[in-house]
Amino acid sequence: MKTGVRYNGALLHGGLLRRLYHRWSLKLFFSELLAKRWMEPVIPFLLMLALIAYFAAVTPHYASIANATQLSRQFAEMGFVVMAMAVVLISGGIDLSVGSVFAFANLTALALFHIFHLPVPVVIVGTLVAGAGVGLINGLLIGYLKARPFLTTLVTLIILRAVVDLLAQRYAVPLAMGGNMTLAWSFLGNGRIYGIPSNLLVLGLVGGLGHFMLSRSRPGWHLTALGSSRKAARHAGIAVERTLCLTYVTSGLLAALGGLFYAARLSSTGSDTGVGWEVNALTAAVLGGVSLAGGRGTIARAMIGAVIVFVLVNGMVRTGLPGALTSTALGAILLLAVGIDVKWAKNRLKTLQKIYLNPTVVELPPPPATARDSGTPYAENDRLRESLEIGLDQVEGPEDVILDREDRLYCGTRDGLILRFSGPRFAQREVFARIGGRPLGMAFDAAGHLIVCVGGMGLYGVKPAGEVYTLTDQTNRSWFKLNDDARLRLADDLDIAPDGKIYFSEATIRYEMHSWHLDGMEGRANGRLICYDPQTRRTRTVIKDICFPNGVCVAHDGRSVLFASTWLCSIFRYWIEGPKKGQVETLIDQLPGYPDNINRASDGGYWLAMVGIRSPAFDLAMRHPGFRLRMVKQIPPDEWILPGINNGCVVKFNEQGEVLESLWDPGGAKHATLTSMREHKGKLYLGGLENNRIGCITLPDADPNWDGNDSYWGRRTS
After folding, report:
1. What is the SS3 assignment for 97?
2. pLDDT tens track for 646-700
3. Which residues pair with 196 in a beta bridge?
4. What is the pLDDT of residues 634-657, one digit of tens each?
5. Which CATH number goes with the domain that contains 652?
6. 487 domain residue, yes or no
7. What CATH number is attached to the domain comprising 231?
8. Angle of CA points 523, 513, 568, to nearest 5°
9. Distance (Å) of CA 64 to CA 47, 307, 310
10. Is the separation of the CB atoms in 243 and 294 below 8 Å?
């Protein structure tokens, strides 16, 4: 038996095509496709392929290996300049001096090698230092003196171009007569490694490093944050001036690297070297998807634009078009690229918002009777109304509660804290740990560490002294799935098996912490059950495609794991030991509400919190995806049809899935939206997603000495 069986069972009834349409919707595929970051430059990428195919078809020998090698060698030099421009654009600035820095670096390299006869390593260092020096001047003026990037780099362009022209005239004869040549210099300009031009290989290595820095390192994050909002970056503690200065230094280094390879390849300079390259680089970067407004773009996208511009210019030259027409075409392309950049980004996000929510058919069996006189174990009562209030108005959303061996009470809060209450009547409140995200499910391991599911972050641990550490924030990615499900979006509850393995649920892989309720409107099997092994530090998904899995509890015998499927109003059992190992079976499939956390009871049974109570209107809405879609799009969220979350209910069931009793707070006077409960020494402690207190009631028939920690790890001997 597999999770999501209710969907499979529903197909046996009427409306087969309708259910298949909503389950395997093309709109779902396209919504996940548009959500991918690599879809942003899809239009430039297709244009690049079209241009290459066109010139390969109309130009003789264009696709030959010899021609491709020569073109790639020329492209690499331009690629460094485009990369230099892209880095500055992402930071929210612009560098119009990249073409002049390229020419200056070319002249510097030639002078150091042919006139001063310095070794190639010294030439390389000297050339890069020259480019970085120009970048440093720009960076100091823009970063620290608050000069305008456009005007500053325009002045640098003019001055540097004049310097290059004067020096080129002054040393034209020595450079032309310089006969210095070494194998290292020749390899730098025309060498190959496994058939790949040396400069192209370096471009790839630098581009890969740049991608890593931008996407995986703190300096790269700071750079992107700077481009998105300089004020917000400053408030976040980013050194704005230093980051800007280093960005222009990096730009100078990259442009100088291109000039170095150009000098080694041609060993010549002229008044037209690098002229107009700043326009080409700007066109390429913007065309590839690097935003002129800053804060958006990658090295890969810039290289896509670079290929487009390079192929277009090279193709126009080969067809004999005059230079003026080529420049006009590039200007037109730049204007078009800016328009596409704005329109595509805006409309892509708008389209994504319109089609991302994809409701499906969810058919639930009729709920059991809950009326006070129904005589069922679910019969409504007032047993939670007389609860003791702990931490009234001192907690905000204690989604889960737990007690340690010293009878101290812990809970997470909406503002990222884990609080601890102790002393008589739990009057003493203290901050035990600051998690940062939204603490949800909690459990103590054998060492007394508090293990916590943190919404939007993953699985974390807290040592007895309050030190927070990361266990895992990702799992194995599914093959053939557009949506990247490696990152943990909404880890929500956990429990620990006797062997120390931690089983935890991730409610949804399509929605984030702030939009989890949209998963309920969708009703799809977007969740999973995951296992983290502290011994191997390996995280793996054990069950996929669960409809909002939530509460997780290891059975008393440690041979199975119980988990709740909230939107299916069901409890399932996953066997981790014994002859049924790896199998999933239904334990309860007809609950009157939406289950949340599950925890052990002292009599060998289990407690279950229900965060909301079913209603006929909501059950009907779940059978009609189109209705839910229109509701979400057309009316405000506070007018949506939702489950009855203004009721508090806790259910007790046994090992066989038989419901024994229920405890209610009708109307949620004290405990609405109950998400957790924890039995400890004859009392039941209550937590809720939206509550401002923790509840506590006495259980007359419970074992007054039973401790959940002892149930898992045995009685403490000392």
Report:
1. coil
2. 889 999 999 999 999 999 999 888 888 999 999 999 999 999 998 999 999 999 9
3. 193
4. 898 888 888 888 889 999 999 999
5. 2.120.10.30
6. yes
7. 1.10.3470
8. 25
9. 21, 17, 17
10. no
